[in-house]
Design brief:
Mean pLDDT: 96
Helix content: 25-40%
Strand content: 5-15%
Oligomer: single chain
Structural class: alpha/beta
Radius of gyration: 16 Å
Length: 188
């Protein structure tokens, strides 16, 4: 059993987001792999669109300071992301823009540096969000994160989940469990 703790979230704000469902399934997979998972909803940490003048005038928003502390308190991240025209969704870009900034209010800094991360995507389409994976991986690497090998994509995600919240397809669920196990092992 690992003592490693992982912060799990989706890069979607939608209430019934397929990626929020994937994040929840991922949190369970982390627990099965022996890690501890904290599942959060980014809707609970609203922040304005990053703007340098706003930062200069007001500093980091309190919600961003809370997120930075949560990231610092965890050994790794598991992120489920939607794909917006093949790109990283604005919500994730904004969150990463803010949490990567230094704070004049104290608290942890460089919270993403050397942080182990696993990424996955769900989409109602047949590609499962595969186009966003390399773009998000590049973004995370630029921020100092260390992505684990591989990823998970879930095509036709509207019908991909079983009643218990796991993936209905055994092969897909096995891929998610394997990704979670690699994340837990990386942070051990």
């Amino acid at each position: 059993m690992s003592n490693a703790k992982f912060l799990v979230f989706a890069g979607s704000a939608r209430e019934n987001s397929l990626n929020k469902r994937l994040a929840a399934a991922g949190a369970e997979a982390v627990r099965r792999a022996g890690g501890s998972a904290t599942l959060i909803d980014l809707n609970d940490y609203p922040a304005p669109i990053y703007h340098g003048d706003d930062e200069a005038a007001h500093g980091l928003p309190e919600n961003i300071l809370k997120l930075k502390q949560m990231i610092a308190d965890h050994d790794g991240l598991l992120i489920a992301t939607p794909e917006y025209n093949g790109f990283v969704p604005p919500l994730l870009v904004n969150i990463f823009s803010w949490v990567s900034r230094k704070s004049d209010k104290g608290g942890p800094e460089d919270v993403l540096k050397s942080k182990h991360v696993a990424i996955m995507a769900a989409s109602p389409g047949r590609l499962g969000g595969v186009r966003v994976i390399p773009r998000l991986r590049d973004c995370l690497c630029e921020l100092g994160c260390v992505p684990v090998q591989g990823f998970v994509t879930v095509p036709a995600a509207g019908s991909a989940f079983a009643d218990d919240g796991n993936l209905a397809d055994e092969t897909a669920q096995g891929g998610l469990d394997s990704l979670a196990a690699r994340l837990v092992a990386a942070a051990a």
